[in-house]
Amino acid sequence: MTVAEELTPAIPDESEEPIKQRKNGLYPGVSDELAENMKSGWADTELRDLDPVPQAAETAARRAALSARFPGERLVIPAGNLKTRSNDTEYAFRASVEYAWLTGNQTEDGVLVLEPRGDGHEATIYLLPRSDRENGEFWLDGQGELWVGRRHSLTEAGKLYGIPASDVRELPAKLREATGPVRVVRGYDAGIEAALTDKVTAERDEELRVFLSEARLVKDSFEIGELQKAVDSTVRGFEDVVKVLDKAEATSERYIEGTFFLRARVEGNDVGYGTIAAAGPHACTLHWVRNDGPVRSGDLLLLDAGVEMHTYYTADVTRTLPINGRFSEIQRKIYDAVYEAQEAGIAAVKPGAKYRDFHDAAQRVLAERLVEWGLVEGPVERVLELGLQRRWTLHGTGHMLGMDVHDCAAARTETYVDGVLEPGMCLTVEPGLYFQADDLTVPEEYRGIGVRIEDDILVTEDGNRNLSAALPRRSDEVEAWMAALKS
């Protein structure tokens, strides 16, 4: 990896901070002649025939709803800043969901500001402009465009996102001078928050955050299309994994993780969360993301993974697969119980149903099987009342899905967990049974087996649609699917 020198230019603009010189750089400075040479001889690269981003109409409608909710108040929604990974390298940037959902933009340091005007608001998107060629930033600064790539000009950004664009470096001073009520989405940009420190309250800012979370509970048609794309790509990623299970057996769970990651990076932006590639007893660890264990014939592989699209919408799918292509008798017994529970859960997803219904339906089936197998003393009502099944079911049966894998997390309990399902909501249904390798309360043959089946379910006007139905779920269909892929 090359290293930007970040040298102070020969003739810095006194109105700007000088470009920081990197310690231990190989060049001692920039000559006047070189500095002058680098200013000229560059073609005009302004992009003039730009169409708005595909979701521009939807983001405008979302901003209008936000404006209506907080009339007369200045609203500040930052994208966030780069975070240091180590020394002078940064983590890959991912804009705040609130900002990306309202703008379609994903640029670091961006800020959306809604200024109250009359009966509504005037939106401005504040961004870094093109790298400055007069002061040498474009080739000397570590974030200059010759180092990290071209930024859109402010004019280009305005066309793309349908929002007038201004220089974000001017925003802190404007915010410090602002009067009237202000709200900001906290936790993403310390500089913006500092500029507003005497103008905002935690309670009012939390109301803004909660509103933006609840506004995403029901997806629009654009969002549903993106979720389906993410799921379709994820299905192909699962197929990729099945085809290379022999190579994973020769290496480790990392081969599975890497195989799925390739699909995610080629067809999407990234994985939507850390891939869980849990073979054997690792399947009993709910968020096993170390993925450094062996992959053995005769064991099960629990693969929980999702492709995130370039628009940030992600899938979240789990399949538990027999590594050698065939379930053993005890594996099939446990798998079929989880499948039956998932079927009951999916059937409970429909408009007007309580959000909790699908969880309760799935948990009842699992409790019935645990009583039937003699692993817990009945009756089933007693088991459910005391939550005794949770020793082996552990987690809730699903969550909202969208731009975050656990979407809408800041929503109020009464509108989410205690709420009612509506058409356009998208959620996961993912029951599981996990028999830990050291659990002496179950027969030895159960120990070390973990099974989870997860699908992404869209609430429709008349019921639901399984977005991930292309991946087989029934045990015999899973075996046939795996055999066909390996042939």
UniProtKB/TrEMBL annotation:
<keyword id="KW-0645">Protease</keyword>
<protein>
    <recommendedName>
        <fullName>Xaa-Pro aminopeptidase</fullName>
        <ecNumber>3.4.11.9</ecNumber>
    </recommendedName>
</protein>
<dbReference type="Pfam" id="PF00557">
    <property type="entry name" value="Peptidase_M24"/>
</dbReference>
<keyword id="KW-0479">Metal-binding</keyword>
<dbReference type="InterPro" id="IPR036005">
    <property type="entry name" value="Creatinase/aminopeptidase-like"/>
</dbReference>
<keyword id="KW-0464">Manganese</keyword>
<dbReference type="GO" id="GO:0004177">
    <property type="term" value="F:aminopeptidase activity"/>
</dbReference>
<dbReference type="InterPro" id="IPR000994">
    <property type="entry name" value="Pept_M24"/>
</dbReference>
<dbReference type="InterPro" id="IPR007865">
    <property type="entry name" value="Aminopep_P_N"/>
</dbReference>
<feature type="domain" description="Aminopeptidase P N-terminal">
    <location>
        <begin position="54"/>
        <end position="193"/>
    </location>
</feature>
<feature type="region of interest" description="Disordered">
    <location>
        <begin position="1"/>
        <end position="27"/>
    </location>
</feature>
<dbReference type="InterPro" id="IPR001131">
    <property type="entry name" value="Peptidase_M24B_aminopep-P_CS"/>
</dbReference>
<dbReference type="Pfam" id="PF05195">
    <property type="entry name" value="AMP_N"/>
</dbReference>
<keyword id="KW-0378">Hydrolase</keyword>
<keyword id="KW-0031">Aminopeptidase</keyword>
<dbReference type="InterPro" id="IPR029149">
    <property type="entry name" value="Creatin/AminoP/Spt16_N"/>
</dbReference>
<comment type="similarity">
    <text>Belongs to the peptidase M24B family.</text>
</comment>
<dbReference type="InterPro" id="IPR052433">
    <property type="entry name" value="X-Pro_dipept-like"/>
</dbReference>
